Amino acid sequence: MIQLNSFLIISAIVFSLGLFTVIYKKNAVGILMGVELILNSVNLNFIAFSKYVDVHINGQLVAIFIIVLAAAEAAIALAIILNIYRDRANIDVTQLDEMKH
Amino acid sequence: MIQTALFIWLLPLAAFTIQILFGKRLPRKGDWVSITAIGISFVLAISLLIQALTHYDPEFVVTASIPWIDLGSFKINMGIYLDNLAIIMLMVVTTVSFLVHVYSLGYMKGETYYNRFYAYLSLFSFSMLGLILWDNLFGIYIMWELVGICSYLLIGFYFEKDSAANAGKKAFITNRVGDFGFLIGLLIVFTSLGTFNLSEINLGVSQGMLSGGLLTAAGILLFAGAIGKSAQFPLHVWLPDAMEGPTPVSALIHAATMVAAGVYLMARLSFMLSFDAMLVVAYVGGFTALFSATIAITQNDIKRVLAYSTISQLGYMIMAIGVGAYTAGFFHLVTHAMFKAGLFLASGSVIHAVHHSMDKIGEHGDPNDMRNMGGFKSKMPITYLVFLIFSLALSGIPFFSGFLSKDAILGGSLAFALAQHNPIHFLLPVFGFLAAAITAFYMFRLIIMTFYGEPKKPKLFEHIHESPKTMTIPLLTLAFLSLFFVYTIPSINPTTGEGGWFYHLIEKPVSAVSTQLGHAVYQMTEHAEHLAHVSGLMISIVLALAGILLAFAFYFWKKIDVEALTEKIKPLYLLSLNKYYIDEIYNATVIRGLLIWNDFLSWFDGAVIDGLVNSTAWIVRNFSVLDGLFDTYVVDGLVNGVGSAVSAFGKSLRKVQTGQIQNYVLGAVLGTAIIIILTMI
Amino acid sequence: MEANQILFIAIALLTVLSAAVVAFSNKIIHSAFALLATFTGFAMLYVYLSADYLAVTQIIIYVGGILILIIFGVLMTHKIYSTTKKTAHNSILVSLLGGVLAAGLILFIISLNPWAANIAKDFSPTTAVIGKEILTNYLLPFEIISVLLLGALIGAIFIARQEDKEK
Amino acid sequence: MGLLSLATFFPLLGMVLILFIPKKNISAIKIVALVTTFLSLVLTSYMWSQYDYSLHGINMESQFQFVEHFSWIATYHIEYFIGVDGLSFPMVWLSSLLSFLAIIASWNIPKAQKGYFSLFLLLATSMMGVFVSLDFFLFYVFWEVMLLPMYFLIGIWGGPRREYAAIKFFLYTLAGSVLMLLAMLAFYFNVTDPVTGGHTFNMLHMFDQNNHIGLLKTFDGRFWLYIALFIGFAIKVPVFPFHTWLPDAHVEAPTAISVILAGILLKMGTYGLIRISYPILPDIARYTSYALAVLGVINILYGAFVAMAQKDLKKLVAYSSVSHMGFVMLGMAVFTEAGINGAVFQMFSHGIITAMLFLLVGVIYDRAHHREIDGFGGLAVSMPVYTGIASLAFFAALGLPGFTGFIAEAMVFIGAFPVYRVLTIIAALGIIITAGYILWMVQRVFLGKLNPKYENIGDINTRELSMLIPLGILTIFFGIYPMPVLNMMKMSLNYLLTLIP
Q1: Does residue A100 lie in a domain region?
Q2: What is the DSSP letter of C122?
Q3: Contact (CB, 8 A) for B335 and B308
Q4: Are B330 and B85 in contact (CB under 8 A)?
Q5: CB A11 within 8 Å of CB C12
Q6: Is C120 within 8 Å of A19 when comparing Cβ atoms?
Q7: How far is CA B556 from the centre of its chain?
Q8: Cβ contact (<8 Å) for B169 and D410?
């Protein structure tokens, strides 16, 4: 049978890849993708635990909420990215550093 | 008796107060006030003398005293002690004082501070009489100093002349040095005997409460007071300068009365003089006699000659007391008072005359200088006659009072020397006889230079004229008092005063010291005394005549060329002329030394002590400056330092905010990783 | 058990590799499309976990919705000349440090996982249970999330509108 | 409100009155000042007539006269306790007299008369207070209050270097009084009040040896307390090393103030020693008597020598005060009847004589506006009356018989000779040097050629005469017959000697 750990390992790997993407990519959309990867790995964890550990299926409910959130977040993020793009003709994150000291 | 004595004493004081307060406004400037006062005292003194003569008892004593200061254990009583000695002294002082008062009418006429002169004369008479009458040493000391201040005032009478002011100051300070000795002697007597009263002291000493070295010390110290007052050797410098004062003053104070106070004191205290003290007294007296006689030879100022002669004669009296010839010493005091006062007054009338003639011819010179006198015999017959009598008396020529007293002293000193087993004491009679010869010489040198020979300044000579009656009458009375028979009334023998009333009244008091030591200070066998007396007589007459002849040879017959002789003994002559440079020595050592010492102390006071005070203030002030600096730099520095460190640290932290969002994510990840690792360990 | 096992491994590899492509590809479009594979991989994994409703929602929302959005985003925001000019990513070393560090930590924690040996429960349909749960225990989060969605929608529209900015 | 308090606080009343008078109305101010000090003098003279000569009153309250004893600050056992006896009454009478004369002397003070007279009256009260107070705290309060007006009087109305002199005077005396404060507190804590058992400031309890506890039982404690007190008083006397403030203060102070400063303030030092140090620590007094005698002799000679080197007349008189106070110290140090009576009588007589001297200096200064001795010359010609009075005063200072100065000095010598023979002989040298510097100064100022500058210098006027005549009469009268004052002193002082072991 498939043990809980394998699922945890998969979500761990995908989580780190997502994290890597967020740090690695200069393109704002790339970062968005990374975030999506992280969220998905978290969902996987939730669902894995609700399957293997939890008597009840709370995990899956939380996963649902996360998915809804992810959708809303992606919408807002892209709206912002579009605005930035309209303003500065590129969405290179390293140049968006007006918040510098 | 006591009331009359009190009257005699207090009248001059009353005159003084009246004179000082209302002198200017009184008619004739109040001179009559003083004269009447002293006149009454004079008459009262005569009455006292008559009473003493009627009693004719050497032991005659009247005393009375009242408590003055009473502090429980420490008591001082003040009273009068009236015995023959005091009565005769009263007589002397009042007569001379009265005559001087009369004489001054003429001499001081027209002086600017005429009234003040008489006030000072009265004050002086008061203090001199007080000195005679008091029955205790403390009282005598008080009067002693008052007499000193009067002499200061009178010497410095012409205070506009710096020399007079200086002389006054010098006189007072030299007297004060003497008084210092007197005070210490006084204290020794008081601490060991607990009393100042003379009779109690006599009792105390005879009971041996004060004896040995301390007694001698007390005696010598009290004698120091006499040295100061009677101008004996070390402290004689003030008397010649005191001639700055008007001549009547010199006559009264510096011839007859004040200077005699020292001798009077020694006479009063002779009972307590131990043998060593007597020796010191004798030698100081003898040496002074010879020493000042040698100076008198070369002086050219009449009053200076007389001043040194006074010092010399005082030396005689002190020597007499020293050798135990008590009555002779006191007798010489009385006779000397008369003819020396006379001499001064006579020289005063000469000076007065010269002064007036100088004013007339408009010449400015020193009226006292004998060198521009000469041949005054014809112009001033009375003054010349009187001057001659006094000089003969002073030189010790028979038939004059001076001879009686001086011869007695010389005889006494000879007897003393004979009685002593130690030949050294023959020095005293040698001093005496030598001085006698020199006295005769300089007196006649003076007479010749002023009265005989031809006038050295003819213009001056015309205007010389005899002094007015008020001046010549006192001179004549004094001349009369210088004749011998006045003192030897019951016996006419001119050679000795033994039979006289004077010798009868004045007995040598029993020396308390001898009773204490159980043996007489020295025995004088009857025979030795007589022998000494006769031989003394012979020698003194011979020497006096020799002196006179020498004077005539030198100055009248000009046998010996005076200038050549002075050239030959130039150094000796200069030495004597300049008074053995004693004044200069004193000035150089004592006075300048003192001034330098004072300046040093004053500098010390200013620089060192004030310096200390100011430097502490300086140190405190600088310390506060340092404190301020420390405060601003160190403490503030610290505070600012912390501030800047924080801001520097903050600046370095700012770099972390790169604006790159991905760095922050990375940072967050690293942070969480570290935290997890830490919790794991 | 082999067939099931093998299938599971295949699906796992699919998701992980596509995630790796998303991460490492230089062209943003490639990573966008790789994302599609990752999402479907996850859906399949959810099936393994008997979370049938979730697998479906995953496919609908993620693949149907979010992925499309991202692709739109990618297409609308890059011009031909801009993507070739600059390197599209930061220094690989630093990013790798972050990723590897996270992976290491999580794997270490997993190793401590006490429930490793649990066996899976049998399959049972979860939709009805989910529906009941949402309307009973989770009613409050459900309402909040709906309000949130509404806010997000309005916000997105407001941010992205074009016209009145020019005026 | 007993007689003594009235006499002491009358000047204060005057001061309050003056404060109400407007500044411009100068004559009114002067009149008020004059009247109040005169009334104070009348009171003290009346008290003298009522004085009971049989009471000695050193340490027994019953033996004191005009006693007033009220509780002042109960919590700290501080009482308003005043009274007089043979030791203090002569000085009380003298200070009231000198205050009155000083007011006349300051008749034509140029500026700020209102301030001057009010401060002066405050000074007069505090002076009197020091001599009458028998409670240590009260004594200390008066002692400090006296400092303040003195500082301003010298500092504002003084001569060219007045600030320096005023500050120096103030700080010097203050340093002294700090030590005194320490000693006071030590006594406060180490003396048990026989009645209440607690601490006490009452001097009479302090005098009683068996009230002493703690520090006052140990020799060292007593010794150092004595030294502290001694320094506090020594600065005031002034004793040799602490005297440098005196010449500056005198030279810069206006005439009236130097009269008070020399006439009264200097006596407070010696008065304090006799009133406080001797009865409380008699064994230490005996132990340090030789040192005090030596300091006294130094004072006499040092004062005389430095006086001779002075160019400024007022400084000369100031140093002469140092020298005469030396006699007081010598007299105090020997514990014989003649000695200690001589010392206190010298305080009284020096008060009178030095007041005359400073008034005389004031007279010339008002006319010639300078005080260099060599600047004058031959004043006897143009100012005969002034010269008469001046020579009288200077002869009194000289210690000439017939004046109080001589009596005091003679008694000190007679008292000191049996105890310290050599020291007294050295001290006796002082009379020669005193004669020296006074006569030398008299010669340079009064005798000799008349300095043309002072041709028409006006002779002494009646105002100045009215000050000098009473003092002159006093000096002569008590010089001839000192018993009225001595009778008063001897009762107390002879009794005090019985206390010293």
Answers
A1: no
A2: P
A3: no
A4: yes
A5: no
A6: no
A7: 37
A8: no
Mention every residue, 6+ apart, whose C-beta is less than 8 A from residue B193. B200, B201, B204, B205, B209, B210
Best probe of the C interface among A26, A49, A78, by most C CBs < 10 A, is A78
How confident is the model over D55-86, as pLDDT tens digits? 887 888 888 888 888 888 888 888 899 989 88
Extract the tokens encoding C100: 């590897």
Instruction: Please give the structure tokens belonging to residue D143.
Output: 């002692």
Nearest to D307 by CA among D299, D316, D298: D316
Residue B525 has pLDDT above 70, yes or no: no
The answer to whether residues C106 and A16 touch, using CB atoms and an 8 Å cutoff, is yes
pLDDT band, residue C85 (cuts 50/70/90): very low
For the stretch B15-67, pLDDT in tens is 999 888 887 788 877 788 889 999 999 999 999 888 888 877 777 788 888 88
Instruction: Give Cα B490 to chain centroid, integer Å.
Output: 37
Contact C101 B669 (CB under 8 A): yes
B652 interfacial to chain A (CB closer than 8 Å)? no
Whether residue A98 is contained in a domain is answered as no
What's the mean per-residue pLDDT of chain B? 84
* Model confidence, pTM: 0.78
Domain ranges of chain C: 1-81, 126-167
Cα separation, D428 vs B181, whole angstroms: 9
Does the residue A97 lie in any domain? no
Strand B61-71 with B74-83, pairing = antiparallel
CA distance, residue D415 to nearest chain B CA (Å):
9
Q: Is A44 exposed, middle or buried (0-12, 13-18, 19+ CB in 10 A)?
A: buried
Looking at the partner chain, which of A2, A37, A68 has a beta carbon nearest the beta carbon of C145?
A: A68
- Determine, for residues B670 and C98 on separate chains, whether the beta-carbon distance falls below 8 Å: yes
Q: Which of B662, B673, B676 sits opposite C90 (nearest CB)?
A: B662
> To which residue do tokens 């025979």 refer?
B527
- D501 contacts D282 by C-beta, under 8 angstroms: yes
D299 interfacial to chain B (CB closer than 8 Å): no
Q: Are C65 and C36 in contact (CB under 8 A)?
A: no
Which residues from chain B sit within 8 angstroms of residue A19, using beta carbons?
A: 665, 669
Neighboring chains of B (3 or more beta-carbon pairs < 8 A): A, C, D
Does the distance separating the beta carbons of A96 and B659 come in below 8 Å?
Answer: yes
Residue of B nearest to C101 (CA): B673
User: CA of A3 to nearest chain C CA: how many angstroms apart?
Assistant: 7
- CA B430/CA D187 separation, integer angstroms: 75
Please give the single-letter amino acid code of residue D485: V
CA distance D435 to chain B (A): 6
Chain A contact present for C51, CB below 8 A: yes
Q: Looking at residue A11, which CATH number applies to its domain? A: 1.10.287.3510
Q: Which residues contact C71 (CB under 8 A, 6 or more apart)?
A: C32
SS3 B627: helix
Structural domains in chain A (count): 1
Mutation target vs A (from B660, B664, B672; most A CBs, 10 A cutoff): B660
Give the tokens for residue A18: 């997502």
Q: Using the beta-carbon criterion (under 8 Å), do C148 and A32 form an inter-chain contact?
A: no
Q: Is the backbone peptide bond immediately before D238 cis, with ω within 30 degrees of 0?
A: yes
Given CB atoms, is B665 within the 8 Å cutoff of chain C? Answer: yes
Domain that holds residue A15: 4-91
How far is C-alpha D72 from the geometric centre of its chain's CA atoms? 28
* Structure token pair of residue B419: 């009685």
Which H or E run contains B371?
none
Q: Do C102 and B670 touch (CB under 8 A)?
A: no
User: Which sequence spans correspond to the domains of chain D?
Assistant: 1-287, 303-501
CATH 1.10.10.10 given to domain C1-81: no
Give pLDDT tens digits for B375-394.
788 888 888 888 889 988 88
How high is the ipTM of this complex? 0.69
